[in-house]
Specification:
The protein is α/β, with parallel strands linked by helices. It has 14 helices and 12 strands. The chain has 2 domains: about 10-260, Aspartate Aminotransferase, domain 2; about 265-399, Alpha-Beta Complex (Aspartate Aminotransferase, domain 1). The strands form 2 sheets. It has a 7-stranded mixed β-sheet, sandwiched between helices. Strands 8-9-12-11-10 form a 5-stranded mixed β-sheet. The chain starts with 14 loop residues before the first helix and ends with a helix. The chain binds pyridoxal-5'-phosphate. This is O-succinylhomoserine sulfhydrylase.
């Protein structure tokens, strides 16, 4: 069914082509859209085939926990977009974060992480992994000296999120990767906020990139999913043995939704980023808004780095209102268009109050250390007309 020479060299395709055709593996029926293989097991014509597959001498499928043709299409498409050697799709973003860390760490190892983290990433590093004897140090991600003094020859792994949730702090990937590499530590980057469209951590020296597919890849609020991108060696030697036997496999249905989501990922992320920038600019200087954080605004504390490292400012805008929680809740109550939701990257604009939702469990002290105030709101800008989102936030502030 292959048409021509060009169709057999997908790694040379442009990004848009990769997103629409990457990984496409048509069945003998020749379906236009990618097929959904909703099966858990596989059958073999001969007992020898089963024997070969279990021996690793034939790479056909054996069981849904190990792999599935629809999941493979999703993995291959994302792998091409990221420019990675290998991709492993998982049930959620957190399964991916935990898997990427736990597959390579053992009791006695040390991990250094930026402290401005997604709430569940914070729990994994500060409370779950330590139960297995893994020590951690949290640093201010924008302070390179802090990374230098925290990373020691004992440090097995460095974890970071940039831009961070919800403060949109940006970390210098090239600089932190250089520091970590010099100490022999592997670098895992949570690239959920930037998406592979705006930032490619592997090109700055990261070893592993993790995603929540639940966010921009689906982008329409339907399914959970995640992925780990790495070298082939990391996948074969560390991920496969850990993940196949612990079982955080993605459902083929969810992988199919994410696979189809990738087709429009770039269009959506670039459009939403453009709208987010307009929203951020419109909020600056409004009465009762004390601070607007957006990576591609000149007022961002690391504006130069943001311009260098991110192709656009992203789909998220964080801002602070005077009057703390009460005023923030008042704004939320008066929104007529934007929905109150802790999800992000969706076609629908969503807003959340991090201090009482995503970052509630970490406690007031950790929130203060991350710069999360009671008047802070995090807005995920969707695909509506930017003017309508701006009007809605404006009327809710003055209500
Ligand atoms: C949502 C999110 C995750 C976790 O993803 P799930 O799919 O919800 O498990 C991890 N990191 C960041 C930055 C996120 O925003």
């Amino acid at each position: 069914m292959k048409k021509d020479v060009k169709s057999s060299s997908p790694s040379r395709w442009g990004e848009n082509t990769k997103l629409v055709r990457g990984g496409l593996d048509r069945s003998p029926h020749g379906e236009t859209s990618e097929a959904l293989f909703l099966n858990s097991g596989f059958v073999y014509d001969e007992p020898e085939t089963a024997e070969k597959r279990f021996a690793g001498e034939d790479d056909g499928y054996v069981y849904g926990r190990y792999g599935n043709p629809t999941v493979t299409m999703f993995e291959e498409r994302l792998r091409l977009l990221e420019g990675a050697e290998a991709c492993y799709a998982l049930a959620s973003g957190m399964a991916s974060v935990f898997g990427a860390l736990a597959c390579q760490l053992k009791a006695g190892d040390h991990i250094v992480s930026s402290k401005a983290l997604f709430g569940s990433c914070y729990q994994v590093i500060t409370s779950i992994l330590p139960r297995f004897g893994i020590r951690f140090t949290l640093v201010d991600g924008s302070d390179l000296d802090a990374w230098r003094s925290a990373i020691t020859p004992d440090t097995r792994c460095v974890f970071l999120e940039t831009p961070s949730n919800p403060t949109l702090e940006v970390i210098d990937l090239a600089a932190v990767c250089e520091i970590a590499k010099a100490a022999g530590a592997s670098i895992v980057v949570d690239n959920v906020f930037a998406t592979p469209v705006l930032q490619k951590p592997l090109s700055y020296g990261a070893d592993v990139v993790v995603y929540s597919g639940t966010k921009h890849m689906d982008g329409q609020g339907r399914v959970l999913g995640g992925a780990i991108l790495s070298t082939r060696k990391f996948k074969e030697e560390l991920l496969k043995p850990f993940l196949r036997h612990t079982g955080p496999s993605i459902s083929p249905f969810n992988a199919w939704v994410l696979l189809k989501g990738l087709e429009t990922l770039k269009l959506r992320v670039l459009h939403q980023s453009q709208s987010a920038r307009q929203v951020a600019e419109a909020l600056v200087g409004l009465k009762d808004i004390t601070r607007v954080i957006y990576p591609h605004l000149d007022s961002h504390p690391q504006a130069d780095l943001c311009q260098r490292q991110m192709a656009a400012g992203g789909t998220m805008v964080t801002f602070e209102v005077t009057g703390g929680k009460e005023k923030a809740f008042n704004l939320l109550r008066h929104l007529q268009l934007v929905d109150i939701s802790n999800n992000l990257g969706d076609a629908k604009s969503l807003i959340t109050h991090p201090a009482t939702t995503t970052h509630r469990n970490i406690g007031a002290e950790a929130r203060a250390a991350m710069g999360i105030t009671d008047g802070m709101l995090r807005l995920s800008v969707g695909l509506e007309d930017a003017e309508d989102v701006i009007d809605d936030v404006k009327q809710a502030i003055s209500a």
